[in-house]
């Protein structure tokens, strides 16, 4: 009974975070929610007894992609005319 409750709660949290990523008006909040979604997906893969996929999801889906998206948001906020000294482009 407890396993079904945990799985249902996990599924609901996945849907809620996915909708909040899509509905967010703030880019930073959307990226943070995307990272949370990736971590919840890793937990879902662990519940499905697929630790290799869970590890890949945590490392690539939440970790690497999240960092790259946060960097992209930072570049987007600076704008094209506000590049740091020494950067080209």
Automatic annotation (TrEMBL):
Primary localization: membrane
Positions of the MrpA C-terminal/MbhD domain: 12-78
Cell compartment(s), UniProt: Cell membrane
Membrane topology: Multi-pass membrane protein
Transmembrane spans: 6-23, 54-74
GO cellular component entries: plasma membrane
Swiss-Prot/TrEMBL keywords: Cell membrane, Membrane, Transmembrane, Transmembrane helix
Source organism superkingdom: Bacteria
Protein name: Uncharacterized MnhB-related membrane protein
């Amino acid at each position: 009974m407890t396993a079904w409750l945990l799985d249902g709660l996990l599924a609901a949290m996945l849907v809620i975070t996915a909708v909040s990523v899509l509905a967010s008006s703030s880019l930073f909040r959307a990226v943070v929610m995307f990272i949370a979604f990736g971590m919840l997906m890793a937990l879902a893969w662990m519940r499905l007894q697929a630790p290799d996929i869970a590890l890949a999801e945590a490392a690539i889906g939440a970790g690497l992609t999240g960092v790259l998206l946060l960097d992209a948001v930072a570049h987007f906020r600076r704008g094209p005319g506000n590049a740091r000294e020494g950067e080209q482009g």
